[in-house]
Fold this sequence. Notes:
Chain B: One of its GO terms (biological process) is transcription initiation at RNA polymerase II promoter. Chain B: Pfam families: TFIID_NTD2, WD40. Chain B: It is found in: Nucleus. Chain B: InterPro entries: LisH (IPR006594), TFIID_NTD2 (IPR007582), TFIID_NTD2_sf (IPR037264), WD40/YVTN_repeat-like_dom_sf (IPR015943), WD40_PAC1 (IPR020472), WD40_repeat_CS (IPR019775), WD40_repeat_dom_sf (IPR036322), WD40_rpt (IPR001680). Chain B: Keywords: Nucleus, Repeat, Transcription, Transcription regulation, WD repeat. Chain A is mainly α and 228 residues long. Chain A has six helices and two strands; from the N terminus they run ααααβαβα. Chain A has helices spanning 8-35, 43-57, 64-76, 110-114, 145-152, 214-225; strands spanning 120-126, 199-205. A two-stranded antiparallel ribbon of chain A has the order 1-2. Chain A is extended, with a radius of gyration of 27 Å. The two termini of chain A are 50 Å apart. Chain B has 713 residues and is α+β, with helices and mostly antiparallel strands. Chain B has 19 helices and 31 strands. In chain B, the strands form nine sheets. A four-stranded antiparallel β-sheet of chain B has the order 4-5-6-9, with no helix packed on it. In chain B, helix 5 (143-149) crosses helix 10 and helix 6 (153-166) runs antiparallel to helix 7 (170-180). Chain B starts with a helix and ends with a strand. Chains A and B meet through helix 2 and helix 3 of A and helix 8, helix 9, strand 13 and strand 17 of B.
Amino acid sequence: MGITEYGPYVINQMLEFAYRYMTTILEDAKIYSSHAKKSSVDADDVRLAIQCQTDQSFTSPPPRDFLLDIAWQKNQTPLPLIKLYSGPRLLPDRYCLTAPNYRLRSLQKKVSSTAGKITVPCLSVGAVSSRPSTPTLGTPSAQTVSVSAKVGAPVSLAGQRFTVQIPSSQPAGKSATPTTPTVQNVLINPSLIGPKNILITTNMVPPDAADSNPLKRKHEDDDDYDAL
Amino acid sequence: DRQTLVAVLQFLRRSNLRESEEILRREARLLGDDLGNVATVATSSPGVAAVAAVPPGKGEARGGCGVGPSSRREPRDVGSPCVPRSVGGSPLCWDTRVGVSAVVVEDQPDVSAVLSAYNQQGDPTLYEEYYSGLKHFIECSLDCHRAELSQLFYPLFVHMYLELVYNQHESEAKSFFERFHGDQECYYQDDLRVLSSLTKKEHMRGNETMLDFRTSKFVLRISRDSYQLLKRHLQEKQNNQIWNIVQEHLYIDIFDGMPRSKQQIDAMVGSLAGEAKREANKAKVFFGLLKEPEFDVPLDDEDEEGENEEGKPKKKKPKKDNVGSKSKKQDPNAPPQNRIPLPELKDSDKLDKVMNMKEAARRVRLGPECLPSICFYTFLNAYQGLTAVDITDDSSMIVGGFADSTVRVWSVTPKKLRSVKTAADLSLIDKESDDVLERIMDEKTASELKILYGHSGPVYGTSFSPDRNYLLSCSEDGTVRLWSLQTFTCLVGYKGHNYPVWDTQFSPYGYYFVSGGHDRVARLWATDHYQPLRIFAGHLADVTCTRFHPNSNYIATGSADRTIRLWDVLNGNCVRIFTGHKGPIHSLAFSPNGRFLATGATDGRVLLWDIGHGLMVGELKGHTDTIYALRFSRDGEILASGSMDNTVRLWDAVKAFEDLETDDFTTATGHINLPENSQDLLLGTYMTKSTPVVHLHFTRRNLLLAAGAYSSQ
């Protein structure tokens, strides 16, 4: 085939790929054949499985006639004139990545009660949507000054979306919701945070949980996740 | 598929197959009602190839095709009614003998509507006989014709092989390949290797390059005498099959004149689509430069530097006069100033131009006696991850794009990279002070290196904007990102290519940029439009290199199909096609006067092209590996080339382009006679210590900067 040199890992990688591909196809084919109530898997099932898999995983670029057609359409419109004196010529904000991708929520009246209490900021890690954008830290408000100091550490994880939210209360007995397993009073080492799908929420946790009424808490919970 | 449907309808109407057309239309109405709109696009399609009638005996229908009611299967009907069922499907759904690729573009000169039918040209087992018969004929022909007729071998071989594969005669295809692949020219060996792995029809499905090759016509340039000879031979009874194949898949561009020698032919062939038709290179190209705007050069407050020779201030004035006098006459080859909208000059741009002129006054005049000094920037510890490099025009910053998806910007001068202060700090400064532009910069975070994160794949191309405010980077993740060099953050991600983008470049005037990628098109964008302004489609394989012409009216794209195309920004037309390289093109450089183009590819040759006439004017042999960097010096006297063979070579550009007599004969027939003067033109070879050269840049004073990553093997 004309290959003169290869690294030692190439063979293993290719074997693994071949094995994975074959098993996926054959499993899909088995499913199709049982759906069609056939007694055994035959060539048509395999063909169908291959076709479905190629449409998903191995897309190929559009065909030439399609490209020529859209090119012809696109090239018909004349080049737009350039506005004079318009500063940096950039897209409207909604197409740019310049907007901050987090929202700061201010502490509610619990601020007054936190005086004199030990507040330990902690990081909780949860799942999320990934829209990579650079965090641009805006001016934090006075109450959240200490949070920004902690958030300074993960700035090096640029390119990940994170929300900074400071819910006013975190009662000890609150059960972890399925989407954000919160670990209270534990500082998670930023090095644990690897891939980009991470939502980092920092919670200011007063050790003695002031109990707000459940309704309010639920509202805050909803508010916490409406950014998702 | 809508297009194919409309094209088939057109064809049926033209062939007066009214019934089938009606039936097809009725079926098609089930699919979409906006067929009417598309029909306006599919207007007269010039050059529809004649579709041979399908022999009624062979009625094999594909299992997945879902053939409709039998009333539609009329033997007369050539446009197979499998069309409506193939929505969302691949060519596999077609009846095996009818592979339709309809291209409906009206006024593009090099694209025509093609309805090509894959008919079985005779018995598959006889293909070997046909081919060896032709081979025998050509080998017995006169010497002067033999070279030209030998051009037929490769395209015929490939098309016959693909036809056998497509019609599923696998064993015949294999034996055909075995027997004849050794006869082909050495520069086609890469293609043949790819072909040898294509043994089944399914293998061809995802391979867009092969599909394009099948449906496009391979262009051959043959003299009239040789052509007559060939035609006479093939039209004899027993060779009719080959004649059919020739007519179907090859386009023979006949010229009157002497047949070409093997050497001349070898210089020009090599691309995936044969050579370029002569009329493809006939359009007028405005290769001249745009006039520099006149403005007052602020006199000499800043000229109190160390060199206070009396000669200096006097030298300034004549320089200004030269600029003035040139602009009086309109260069006939230059585009009108407002041919394409260009951004106006801001004050900072004017200051930049003044600096440029000052530096130009101190520029070293290069020549064979005065070679540039070369300063090499080696990227250490890059672990083979350095994939793109760019340097600003004033040589103050260098950027590297890496395989770990980071983009790193370094400052080349002792001045550190500073970013603008945060909003909190900005509100504290005094906005009325004179040096407010200095005060907004944050000294505390100034550093020599800034790392930009954002891409999710290796960064294959980077480009600074001429005003040094923006940086572009394109990556395997299919996006092109615009970064601000004042805040060192990402501003925009331009999504359009959904496949790796191999190269990007800002226009010399800013605002526009071009990108080219795996989807075989190049796109022209503007920074304030989220969709491309122009799409340049036509290449058969990935677009690997994209460059703007100095007057920003044209874009050159080099591709893995081994051709270079020159596109007009105004209307997206392809105005030039240059063939001759034997491998994918990886570097392009326009000469500063805009007249010539230098290209480098994996075959280790640098080819020089005259844009105005559309001809190859020089060939520089010497490198032994892919050439990734090409750059002309500031006044165009020296061409520097950097390659994977760890060398930088300097070539005498003045001598290469002088006394070019492109007389009428050459331009009419396209004959070229390249002098074997690579050795004379080579001014110097400079070896690096196992560091392939990835980028070259001449500073404004003609110092050559080079960049590459140290690789320890």
